[in-house]
Amino acid sequence: MLKTTIRYLYYCLLIATPLVWTSLNFELFEFNKMIFIYLLTTLIAGAWILDCLFSKRLIMRKSFMALPILLFLASQVVSTVTSMDLHTSIWGYYSRSNGGLLSIICYSLLFLVFTAYFTAQDLAGFLKATLFGGLIVALYAIPEHYGVSPSCVLLHHQWTASCWIQDVQARVFATLGQPNWLAAYLAMVIFIGLYLFLTAKDLLVRAIYLVILIGLNMAFSFTYSQSATLGLFAGLGVCFLSLIKSPQLSRKLMLLGLTVIVIINLSLGSGFKRLNLAQYLSQLNRTQTTNQPTANIPQPSVTPGVTQLEAGGTDSGKIRLIVWKGAWETFKHFPLFGTGVETFAYSYYLFRPTEHNLVSEWDFLYNKAHNEYLNYLSTTGMFGFGTYLLMIGVFIGWSVWFIAYRVSLSGKNNNEQRPTTNDQLLITCLLAAYISYLVQNFFGFSVVMIATLFYLFPAFGIVGAGQNTEGKVHFSLITLKDFFSNRAINLFSILVTAGTIAWLVFGIGTVWYADTLFALGMNYSESGVPTRAYKYLSQAQTLRPDEPYYKAELGFAAASTASLASDQDASLSGELVKVADQETKLALQASPANTSFYRTAIRTYYQLSALDDKYQKTTLQMLDKTIQLAPTDAKVYYNKGLILGQFGQTDEGLKALQKAIELKSNYREAYLTLGEFYQQLGQKDQAKEAYTTVFKLVPNDPEALDKMKELEK
Fold this sequence. Notes:
The protein is an all-alpha fold. 70% of the residues lie in helices and 1% in strands. The termini are far apart.
């Protein structure tokens, strides 16, 4: 019974996880998927432990991947213990929880339990579940390309795609939340579809799989993802190499499947615009017939709310090189264990290259290195990076050996069981999917669904090849079988386990609900309604008193509410001032290296300084601490200059603005404010020079024109 429960929980994981999202949360997609993984892993691991208790043995099977995965998990534990931000390393960066220690524990458990319970006879169902989940996502994505988002239909009853701020028609993202993430997921699932197509025995079933494969590739093409396209073609290269030794029938079928994939990506477009044959033919047709209307294939565009790197814009390569340089510098300063799991958002600012100030996204927050390998290298050091490569290398090495092993046995007379053609095809397709993941991650980073497949696909390979059938481990629990045979003790252990499962499920639900309250609070805060923001942020913080993000934003909401109440209720305002100060300090104590929290603290104490002059000093201290954590960030110096000006310290403000300009020579706002400060000090020549520089950056800048007119009066 428990094995059946575990089986269906894995089906649910493979089908439902890519579909999970809600409009209620602070982050709609990744957060919900991670919560779902927490929930299913708790249930799967709980069922496994209960089964062990019922059977009075440890249900486990040996596999060659178990040790590398456990070594990698150990490296993440060490890097978490030594982290510059323990909370972030445990939970992951808020809103992008994948990669935190808890997520790695979940993925490791999912691998171990899968290989413990299932055999080659069970694998077909899991492969079909994976493909079915991908098909639903593809069917969700394809209408987006043609201007109808199922999300808009479901939430707003609008047969359009206008409910999204992002241009989902230009680059679809379905239920994954970002085009590159969708493409990376589909690239892996496509190879599962290819395997099922190649191994189908019935002609009708094979035709169905071919149609599914076409649908998956259509959705993939409409993402226009460069990194995922590179990954897909790298995986196709693995398949083409396998053709060298494949039997003739398999060769014909695989060539057909690969040809379909390539033709769709060439005809409908891909991450590489120059490969878009449909657009080329459309342009050719326009040159021949000027009176007939033609359709334009939407091209990749940068969408609001994501970085150029994630959107795959034209200057993404330049930005990547700068971010990679910062990641490498971080590793050089923390070579052994890194700065801590998932702390790149904080450590990068310490070594952020100055030239980052000159790119279009100079003030964007980068919580990933946009290269999975450099991300691990900088945040977990050589220990984490080395075990990560070991885990990858072991699976690739075994896959290559397995494929070659079957070929080497062909025609030999021995009694050893030989892998079948289907076994070879399975490992080939899983390896191709794995390679596609690794290649796209060189230019990006993993998210919840593809990270889940990264751990489960090796498990699929091990189970499918029968590598977990020998050496089954049935250790008696703590070698005290007689002890656990006692009915009272055994019942007590079962009840404790069941209670723990229930407690964890309740805790996971609480984390999710707290986030919905936090999302409401943040919406009200951004809308300028601090009283409502304070209400919901207080509720969120009560449910999750360990989350420093909630405390930081609650502090700002309290300060804003105190400002509103100061004229009407001095007593209430005073209490809110204390709350703002206390919550902000607690947030900074919990995450002392989090530059974002310090920026929030600056806003909080600046608000409080309007109520009490003593907070002016605290505001400046927060600015100086932020500069210490982000020494090359021009915006921090600019903000310091503005605030010093507000505090009547114009001379000091000038120095801060000049430093900002030194770091960012094209800083239009800094030059404009510099001119205003010089104007206030009566230094008209210097003010005119600053405004002239603004005109060089922005010809006929209206604000600078007004300031110049004031100077001439």
